[in-house]
Design goal:
Blueprint: E1 9-17, E2 29-39, E3 45-56, E4 61-67, E5 75-76, E6 81-90, E7 94-105, E8 110-121
Antiparallel strand pairs: 1-2, 2-6, 3-4, 3-5, 3-7, 7-8
Pfam families: DUF525
Protein name: Protein ApaG
Domain ApaG: 3-127
């Protein structure tokens, strides 16, 4: 009996505060985040688009949707990973990001790869 091939994408992200681009008095806190997208399934898949939900400590939500990431729509074979760095600015020293990548498997199946929520925090803001 043939095995069913299933798409599986694992996403991890890590944020870093960018002090030199931030201005606390003006309410601008800039963060870089590095994302790793790994194909942990057994079928190739391509990242088509993204949806980010960025929330600051005041509860203000920014939603970002777009095609690809950093101008690319990477295709990942099983076992392959794609890593990129991007950034965002929020009005508070602490916030969160989460979201999903819209993916298409080799057979045309569309699915979402969840981006687990991670924290944006200026140094000394989390105890």
């Amino acid at each position: 009996m043939p095995e069913a091939k299933s798409p599986a994408i694992t996403v991890s992200a890590q944020a870093q505060y960018i002090e030199e681009q931030s201005d606390a008095e003006a309410g601008r806190f800039v963060f870089a985040y590095k994302v790793t997208i790994e194909n942990t399934g057994d079928t190739p898949a391509q990242l088509v688009s993204r949806h980010w939900v960025i929330t600051d400590a005041a509860g203000h939500v920014q939603e970002v949707r777009g095609i690809g990431v950093i101008g690319e729509q990477p295709r990942l074979a099983p076992g392959e990973a794609f890593e990129y760095t991007s950034g965002c600015a929020i009005a508070t020293a602490v916030g969160t990001m989460r979201g999903a990548y819209q993916m298409v498997a080799e057979d045309g199946t569309q699915f979402e790869a969840e981006i687990p929520e991670f924290v944006l925090a200026a140094p000394g803001m989390l105890h």
